[in-house]
């Protein structure tokens, strides 16, 4: 019989608070999964890295690892980068099988957690404004994957309809469009007395802080509108329950990732050239950089990378990802340059 372990795979952040919040989620999962050894690691910018957690499970004699992406939606990190790290490790450890869970996705538990964060913001408001005179703006992370971006719209619609808000819109913190400031500026023109800004993020970090800063900036231009900044998801109990579900789905054979709208499998409008791109991670250069002890780059890489390289550089390189077709959209990343 296999000895089963669990590996939680996070993105990583230069923000120490974000790393601490991820660690809190890992602790919550250990409490919910007491029969398994649960380890965690990051794709980039923080330690331990994913391979470190896998090493602990391997050294403890686990021959079956259930790996869960700490991602809300399946974009490049969940579809390519993390699987590449896992497959590379599995290839180097023939006695270990790694089964990969699906992302958190559109899930009733995640919607309940989101609803609670929005309700907390409403409960803390100074003024009594009817919901039909209140607008909801959900802010997603933003990716070069239109399927993942569209999921933010579905979350927004279900929250909008569930609460009965007067209107709802979506904007993004980066990569795609509209970004937060132009999105909120547009929202302010619609005439609602109150706008609730909800970052649909798991953890804090530079992006969440930037969302709140842009909210303050737009609010200052529109003193007649009350802007409420809702909290992000963090370690809400329902989020932890959803993570736990992803682990049990692997064992129950219900681990179904949405592949019908995957730009790597199907020709999606605007992304036709990306069908069949190789599954590889471009994040090995920033593994462990940013918080904690620096992680040396003396490990081998798959996919033709040099062995034992020791150079270091910042995160302004492009990782080799396929270019996003709308990178110059006037309401997208281009608007951050001030041009």
Describe this structure in words.
The structure is a single chain. By secondary structure, this protein is of the alpha/beta class. It has a domain at 108-229: Rossmann fold (3-Layer(aba) Sandwich), CATH 3.40.50. 35% of the residues lie in helices and 14% in strands. It has eight helices and eight strands, in the order βαβαβαβαβαβαβαβα. The protein has a four-stranded parallel sheet, with helices on both faces. Strands 6-5-7-8 form a four-stranded parallel sheet, with helices on both faces. The chain is globular, with a radius of gyration of 20 Å.
Largest sheet: 4 strands, parallel
Mean pLDDT: 85
Report the radius of gyration as a whole number of Å.
20 Å
Examine the coordinates and then state which fold CATH places here, giving the name of the CATH topology of the domain at 108-229: Rossmann fold
The SS-based structural class is alpha/beta
Estimate what percentage of residues fall within beta strands.
Answer: 5-15%
Number of helices: 8
Rounded to the nearest angstrom, the distance between the terminal CA atoms is: 61 Å
Low-pLDDT residue intervals, each spanning 5 or more residues: 294-319
The number of strands is 8
Residues in helix, %: 25-40%
CATH architecture of the domain at 108-229: 3-Layer(aba) Sandwich
**Strand order within the widest sheet?**
2-1-3-4
* CATH class label of the domain at 108-229: Alpha Beta
Categorize the overall geometry.
globular
Secondary-structure element pattern, one letter each: EHEHEHEHEHEHEHEH
């Amino acid at each position: 019989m296999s000895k089963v372990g669990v590996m939680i795979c996070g993105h990583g952040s230069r923000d120490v608070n974000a790393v601490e919040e991820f660690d809190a989620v890992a602790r919550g999962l250990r409490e919910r999964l007491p029969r398994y050894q649960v380890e965690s690691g990051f794709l980039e910018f923080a330690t331990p890295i994913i391979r470190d957690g896998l090493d602990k499970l391997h050294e403890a004699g686990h021959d079956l690892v259930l790996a869960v992406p700490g991602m809300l939606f399946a974009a490049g990190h969940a579809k390519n980068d993390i699987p590449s790290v896992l497959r590379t490790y599995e290839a180097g450890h023939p006695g270990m099988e790694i089964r990969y869970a699906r992302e958190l996705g559109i899930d009733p538990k995640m919607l309940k957690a989101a609803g609670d964060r929005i309700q907390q913001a409403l409960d803390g408001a100074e003024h009594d404004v009817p919901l039909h005179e209140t607008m909801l703006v959900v802010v997603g992370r933003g990716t070069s994957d239109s399927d993942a971006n569209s999921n933010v719209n579905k979350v927004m619609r279900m929250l909008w309809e569930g609460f009965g808000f007067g209107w709802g819109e979506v904007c993004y913190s980066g990569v795609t469009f509209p970004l937060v400031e132009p999105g909120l500026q547009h929202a302010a023109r619609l005439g609602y007395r109150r706008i609730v800004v909800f970052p649909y993020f798991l953890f804090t970090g530079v992006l969440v802080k930037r969302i709140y800063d842009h909210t303050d900036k737009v609010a200052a231009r529109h003193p007649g509108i009350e802007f409420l900044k809702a909290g992000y998801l963090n370690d809400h109990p329902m989020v932890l329950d959803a993570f736990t579900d992803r682990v049990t789905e692997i064992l129950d054979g219900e681990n179904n990732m949405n592949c019908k709208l995957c730009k790597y499998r199907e020709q999606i409008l605007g992304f036709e050239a990306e069908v069949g791109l190789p599954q590889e991670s471009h994040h090995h250069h920033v593994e462990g950089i940013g918080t904690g002890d620096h992680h040396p780059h003396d490990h081998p890489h798959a996919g033709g990378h040099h062995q034992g390289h020791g150079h270091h550089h910042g995160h302004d390189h492009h990782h080799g990802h396929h270019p996003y077709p709308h990178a110059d959209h006037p309401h997208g990343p281009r608007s951050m340059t001030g041009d």
